[in-house]
Specification:
Low-confidence stretches: none
Strand content: over 45%
Radius of gyration: 20 Å
Shape: elongated
Helix content: under 10%
Order of helices and strands: EEEEEEEEE
Largest sheet: 7 strands, antiparallel
Length: about 140
């Protein structure tokens, strides 16, 4: 869904529902190994606001359902909710300075575990950075 309640404000909402049935496509292949690798549901809400012609504020809230994994108890990923925000200032047409925060609701959350190589889960850390974009 994409809605623009004001000329300077845009809202977007999305939901994805997955139901996967695995079939073995080739001899020796196990389609069941892909079950549990995709969350059953994802929800996303985005807001983009042009505060003034020089200032912008964006926010993105996502919820991802639990991943059961292909090996229960080993590669399962719990459900998580993540919030990213961006505040941008454009003092001139060719220069934009922005402050970005990622994963603001949690210090970290797991998103992936490799079952092919023994490894620790990939953790997405909270992050904040300052960016300057100069076009010439």
């Amino acid at each position: 869904m994409d809605w623009q309640p004001l000329s300077n404000w845009r809202l977007q909402a999305n939901t994805s529902l997955f139901h996967i049935r695995a079939r073995d496509a080739l001899p020796g292949a196990a389609g069941s190994e892909f079950l549990g690798a995709t969350p059953r549901q994802q929800i996303s809400l985005r807001s983009s606001l042009d505060i003034t012609p020089q200032w912008q504020w964006d926010a993105w809230l996502r919820h991802v359902a639990r991943l059961d994994g292909s090996t229960p108890g080993f590669d399962a990923i719990p459900a998580y909710t993540s919030l990213d925000m961006r505040l941008a200032w454009k003092p001139q047409p060719d220069l934009e300075i922005s402050l970005v925060g990622q994963n603001l609701l949690n210090a970290a959350h797991p998103e992936f575990v490799s079952v092919n190589i023994f490894s620790t889960p990939v953790q997405i850390q909270r992050g904040v950075y300052l960016k300057a974009d100069w076009k010439f």
